[in-house]
Input
Amino acid sequence: MSSILTDPTTRPPRSAEPAPGRPEAAAPEAVAAQRRSLVHRVERSARAGVWRSAAVVLFLLLWEIGPQTLITPDTRVFLPPLHVTLGAWVDLVRDGTLQTHLQASLTRSVLGFGIAVVGGITVGLVVSWYATVQSFLTPLLELFRNTAALALLPVFTLLLGIGEVSKVSIVAYAAFFPVLLNTIAGVRTVDPMLIRAARSLGLSQLRVFQKVVLPSAVPTIFTGVRMAGTASILVLIAAEMVGAKAGLGYLIVNSQSSFQIPQMYAGILTVSLLGLAVNLGLVRLERHFSRWRPDATGR
Amino acid sequence: MTAKISLRGVGKQFVVRPSRDQTHAAVLDALRDIDLDIAAGELLTLLGPSGSGKTTLLDLLGGLSTPSSGQVLLDGSPTTGPGLDRGIVFQQYALFPWRTALANVTFGLEQQNLSRAARDLRAREYLELVGLAGFEDRYPHELSGGMKQRVAIARSLAYEPDVLLMDEPFAALDAQTREQLQDELLRIWRTTGATVVFITHSIEEAVYLGQRVAVLTSRPGRIKEVVDIDLPGREGGTDLRSDPAFVAYRHRLWQLLHEEIARARDAGHRRIQPDGTEGAA
Ligand SMILES: Nc1ncnc2c1ncn2[C@@H]1O[C@H](COP(=O)(O)OP(=O)(O)O)[C@@H](O)[C@H]1O
Ligand SMILES: [Mg+2]
Output
């Protein structure tokens, strides 16, 4: 932070009016300054990158060295070093097993997530449009939301079996509530001043909803969508661990029970990379839709 | 000549939630017996202490609420809700933060049958009129307070309403920006020929802008007096505010306003400072 304050070359040039200068006259120095600031910036971002990845690198090092030096050989079987896990991972990719499981998981989560997003936004908008419906439903919604989705997993299994429908349903269920509740919250927190302004222009109720309430709720809705993305992967893996014939969750449990420990860790590694990628993508999306908010941090 | 806007015995009451020491809801008299005619093309300022019902009156004019008694006439016929024949500029700008300056100005135009190109063209014209050419693509959070209010004014002017209603639009701005915008408003008013009702709690602003100043009493708001302002032109670049005539008007209005502030204080209202803000009792 302090380097930004003290280093004038990195300060973003953002004045309202472009400074009336003579670019021809100033060119050589400007180019030099630009080059200097570029070197500076690369150096700075490289240093920041090293620092930001240091903890992960240390963790991976510990994972590699720890099992070989710190623990006894018979526990080492349960905690193979990193290179063994990576080896197993490469083997899984080579024979296509990983792709099959990944695809199974992705299909389920994308389907469930999609249903949840469409359903959550639709129901959320309808519920918040009718104030009486909202006050009627909110206690029930709160009850459902605070019931961990995984607690209902047995119910889904009993009613829908262990097939695809059951998996997609529980994912949709878990992802539904963040979207729904954030949609309702987004609609509720619209600035009343803006509604007054729109009404003063003679807009009908429906138009006000479409042109003021909805756009102002979009960032909050997307926060819900991001939370739903995380939730859908979490729940899916758990569901696949309980009863499935394919999917990353199945890969992990199955490897464990058939004592292919490195393969199990390769599965876990894939899950965390998938989660990371999904979250990163959704954060990007959320940022994009919150551009107009000065305080948008994308979190 | 018929008046552009006529208020005939207008009153407005609010039912307020009972406070802790009351058993049932009370009725609050915000405005009572307002009679006022505003001519087409006139710039009238409405001066009153805080809480005297200025915003309530503006809401009635804008069609955002209906009077409890009496009538609000526009071109001789009673108003039915808001419409594009009147534009409102709010103190807090009320710009749509997800829209750029240009898209904010086109907001009202989207209610009309105009092509997108025509809308953009018109919006650009009005942004230029308020001195914001080149800022079309800025989002509100990238603009200063004065610039935001300029965008809000352009938004209200763009659909070319006959009447411009302004609710303390410059109150949140610093003194320099305020004076600058006051002059711009006068210029725009002359250019467009619109009827302007300008609400303020600043005596100086009321005298500087108004052809007439209507002074409201403290709650319930009534028209205490309408003062005609006859001052030389504002264009000269002279310091009109220290002109003896200006100072005399200022003093006259100060007296009128102070009677009301004193009355409100005696009536046990919250203490209201001469500038209209409320201080601790
Ligand atoms: N919707 C409302 N419900 C109840 N009381 C209101 C409402 N709007 C305004 N009032 C009251 O009416 C009085 C006049 O308010 P307002 O018109 O905002 O005054 P001003 O704009 O002159 O400061 C105040 O006492 C205020 O508390
Ligand atoms: Mg007010």
User: Anything to note?
Assistant: The two ends of chain A are 20 Å apart (CA to CA). Residues 1-26 of chain A have pLDDT under 50 and may be disordered. The first helix of chain A runs from residue 2 to 6.
